[in-house]
Amino acid sequence: MTSTDVPGGGRHRARFPASGTFAEPAGTAGRPSSASLAREHELARMRAKLMDPETAARDLAERLTFAHVNAGKPALSVLGEAVHYSKATLSKVFAGKMVPSWPLVEDLAVALRVPPQTVVQEWLLLWTAANTLRRNPDAGRPAPGTTAATTDAGYTCPKCGSWVVDTALHTGWHLQISDPQR
Q1: Is 52 helix (H, G, I), strand (E, B) or coil?
Q2: Which of 54, 142, 159, 164 could form a disulfide with 151 if both were Cys (CB 3.0 to 4.6 A apart)?
Q3: pTM for this predicted structure
């Protein structure tokens, strides 16, 4: 397990908690239960293998930004105090320039009052796929000899070989054909 896989850490995390935050204390309501998180994490790991890491990172940044705007767009300094991360880190995350750590995603969900179901069922899948970029920065880059234009429009599914432009739809298709009960 690498340091990027371990929840709770991050080199940009503030060392001391700030007082007067608007979010609920860490580890309280608003966080998914560890049992549901473990179950969904395993499912997310399987589904993430079918996703393009760069697309997942962009989608995650868009979802986080939407939650930020939906919460009234609190100032990054106020939000930074609530989640114990710097304004610069939050700015990079919302701009899609940096894949956040999972603890930051969870802290943002609590601070922005995002329902735990959304975090577990949507954000975890996107973060799991995008996290391959944190662990291997070259994972989403085009192979030598290919053009960026062809890789930006979609990607080849490693499981079935199809050209995928809508990851969510394609992943859903794989889940339907692999689940005999549907």
Answers
A1: coil
A2: 142
A3: 0.57
- Per-residue pLDDT of 11-44, as tens digits, reads 555 443 443 344 444 444 566 667 666 777 777 7
102's CB contacts (< 8 A; 6+ apart) are 7, 127, 131
Taking alpha carbons only, the member of 134, 161, 171, 149 closest to residue 4 is 134
Residue of 118, 140, 119, 144 whose CA lies nearest to 129: 140
Among 48, 46, 42, which Cα is nearest to 134's?
48
Per-residue tokens: 151: 């890789």
* pLDDT on residue 76: 95
Whole-number pLDDT of residue 136: 65
* Domains along the chain with CATH numbers: 34-137 (1.10.260.40)
Q: What angle do CA 14, 135, 153 make, to 5 degrees?
A: 115
d(CA 104, CA 93): 10
Terminal alpha carbon distance of the chain: 35
- Rounded-to-integer distance, Cα 38 and Cα 76, Å: 30
